[in-house]
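Morning run. Coffee first, then this:
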Amino acid sequence: MTAPAREDGRWARRIARAVGIAGVLLLVLAVRVVTASRAELVEADRLRERGDVDASVAHYRRAARWYAPGNPYSTDALDRLAEIARGAEAAGDRDLALAAWRSVRGAILGARSFYVPHAERLERADEHIATLMAALPPPPVDAGRSEAERRAAHLELLRDVPRPSPFWGLVALLGLATWIVAALAFVTRAIDEEDRLVAAQARVWGTVWILGFGSFLLGLALA
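And here it is:
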């Protein structure tokens, strides 16, 4: 094999290794989200079967809050909360219905980053919350308003939610890009041809990797 061919082979292996590392890290994060969501859902189901519906609502909310695209447990938790809320409404249990719908709303808004997931579910939850709130005895300031007017006012307040911040969304995207590039650079530059660690390069690209990952998490949290 010629020297250029051997060099190309080494770069290909390094790039493949870097891509593999980045993939493993993303997989670890995804597994963490899915397993935590499933654990909360299982606990919520157990509490609900035992008759402790109020406590189950809190765990369903946590399960739904562990959102990731394609996570079935998060979606199942939202379904359970909506089921509890509708059942409570039918039974005239306004407090439980409000708690469940508010949990749907809180979980969805708590999971937003660059976008708001489950937008249709959020809209339905807002409508139910507004209807339930309007049916409560009005405070003195709203005594002259009809129930329909109070509902409209509640709905307007509920839908007045700040959109995800473009700035922090950009920070998250740049952090993700930096994280991936740093992982590639670490494998291709911080490890020599004999698979030994190059200390100076390892410090540089390891630091960049940490900063990129931190920026990604910060952007997600504040977007």
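The chain has two domains: 33-164, 167-222. Good start to the day.
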